[in-house]
């Protein structure tokens, strides 16, 4: 039994003025389909549905049982998926592997496969230093909520990107020998990243090559998603802000769980005298997940790509992003591999998100081959 997981919800389209065409009016240009959700994740969902229909029309009955799980809350943390999975635990324990939701081709035309995801904890930090804003002439005396928040934030991460939360590094499970060996086979696509996002500075810590991949895949991160404090309108307003707020996400690796990291974050701030900084847990976090390269689904996905388009995929031990892979799959013993219709310039979550039509077709061919390969390998196992 093969499970296929996808989602149909999307990120907000902002900033709207950076879209070449309206984000919710799918538009084809230069062999690409532009729309919010084209790559993340509607293109993959549609390709898989079409592939199963085409297989039955052109070949015959499916060679494996296929179970779809499709949700509409992935972009907000899949807050109901864990309880849904628990209600269907008996069925999930009969699943032999899962094809996960996302993937892309790199600049060399190679499909990319991921065998895991990072976990995530999303938090909001709040500071209040007074009942009301004050005249900035008192800035040498009165506490400033914006400064207070910035000072607290500066203790969480070094300038080169390393997470500094007390004790966090000690709880990280080191990468295995097989994972490190897999890392050595992967290319560093730094120039593609630089071009896609128009970077104006070097990567953090000047990292490149295997060291950059290790940071990306095997190390936790803390990211400021947004800051709000004081006056930000036109012109000048000389005030001392009385309130400040920041939204953060922390990407987690084995053996870090959202609750463990939340507790460690609060303790870290309190230990430094920032017990006035309120830490709010914004949503249910996600636990990191990993699948062995030797798992049935991992082997079948790699072989199916080779058979479908004649190109061997690049296999990554995990992804830098997050998803409910543990909550839906690994908590019930299901191994997972993720691959899909995106391309290295898809710009998921950004303006002008797109997929290439040719990749959509290739992905349908891949799914057809995967059905046959998974059935054959499952019988031989």
Question: How would you explain this protein's 3D organization?
Answer:
The chain has 381 residues and is of the alpha/beta class. Helix content is 32%, strand content 21%. The chain has 11 helices and 19 strands. The strands form 7 sheets. A 4-stranded parallel beta sheet has the order 4-1-5-17, covered by helices on one side. The relative contact order is 0.24. The model has no long low-confidence stretch (mean pLDDT 95).
Quaternary organisation of the protein chains: single chain
Low-confidence stretches: none
**Structure class:** alpha/beta
Q: Order of strands in the sheet with the most strands?
A: 4-1-5-17
Cα end-to-end separation: 14 Å
Total E-strand runs: 19
Mean pLDDT metric: 95
Rg for CA atoms: 23 Å
Order of helical and strand elements: EEEHEHHEEEEEEHHHHEEEHEEHEHEEEH
Question: Portion of residues in helices?
Answer: 25-40%
- Beta content comes to 15-25%
Largest sheet: 4 strands, parallel
How many helical elements?
11
- Principal-axis shape: globular
Short description:
This protein is an alpha/beta fold and 381 residues long. The chain is 32% helix and 21% strand.
Strands, helices and their partners?
Elements: E1 2-7, E2 27-29, E3 32-34, H1 38-58, E4 66-71, H2 81-87, H3 89-92, E5 97-100, E6 104-105, E7 112-114, E8 116-117, E9 119-128, E10 134-135, H4 145-153, H5 177-184, H6 190-197, H7 209-218, E11 221-229, E12 239-240, E13 243-252, H8 258-271, E14 278-281, E15 289-290, H9 296-309, E16 314-316, H10 325-328, E17 336-338, E18 342-343, E19 354-356, H11 357-380
Parallel strand pairs: 1-4, 1-5, 5-17, 6-18, 7-16
Antiparallel strand pairs: 2-3, 3-19, 8-15, 9-13, 9-14, 10-12, 11-13
């Amino acid at each position: 039994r093969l499970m296929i997981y996808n989602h149909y919800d999307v990120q907000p389209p902002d900033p709207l003025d950076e879209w070449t065409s309206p984000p919710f009016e799918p538009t084809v240009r230069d062999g690409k389909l532009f729309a919010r959700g084209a790559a993340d994740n509607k293109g993959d969902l549609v390709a898989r549905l079409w592939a199963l229909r085409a297989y039955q029309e052109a070949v015959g009955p499916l060679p494996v049982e296929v179970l779809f799980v499709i949700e509409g809350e992935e972009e907000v943390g899949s807050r109901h998926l864990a309880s849904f999975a628990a209600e269907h635990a008996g069925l999930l324990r009969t699943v032999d592997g899962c094809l996960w939701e996302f993937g892309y081709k790199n600049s060399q035309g190679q499909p990319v496969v991921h065998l895991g995801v990072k976990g995530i904890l999303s938090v909001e930090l709040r500071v209040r230093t007074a009942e009301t804003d004050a005249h900035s002439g008192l800035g040498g005396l009165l506490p400033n909520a914006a400064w207070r928040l910035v000072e607290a934030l500066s203790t969480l991460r070094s300038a080169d990107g390393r997470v500094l939360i007390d004790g966090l590094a000690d709880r990280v499970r080191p990468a295995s020998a097989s994972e490190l060996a897999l890392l050595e086979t992967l290319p560093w696509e730094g120039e593609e990243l630089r071009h896609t996002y128009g970077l104006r500075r070097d990567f953090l810590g000047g990292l490149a090559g295997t060291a950059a991949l290790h940071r990306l895949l095997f190390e936790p991160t803390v990211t400021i998603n947004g800051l709000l404090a004081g006056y930000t309108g036109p012109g000048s307003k000389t005030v001392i802000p009385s309130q400040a707020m920041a939204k953060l996400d922390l990407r987690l690796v084995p053996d870090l769980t959202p609750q463990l990291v939340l507790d460690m974050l609060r303790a870290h701030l309190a230990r430094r005298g920032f017990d006035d900084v309120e830490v709010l847990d914004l949503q249910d976090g996600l636990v990191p997940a990993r699948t062995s390269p030797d798992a049935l689904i991992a082997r079948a996905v790699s072989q199916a790509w080779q058979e479908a388009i004649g190109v061997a995929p690049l296999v990554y031990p995990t992804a830098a992003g997050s998803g409910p892979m543990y909550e839906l799959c690994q908590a019930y013993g299901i191994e997972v591999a993720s691959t899909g219709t995106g391309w290295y310039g898809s710009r998921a979550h950004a303006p002008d998100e797109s997929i290439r039509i040719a990749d959509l077709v290739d992905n349908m061919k891949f799914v057809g081959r995967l059905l046959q390969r998974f059935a054959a390998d499952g019988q031989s196992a």
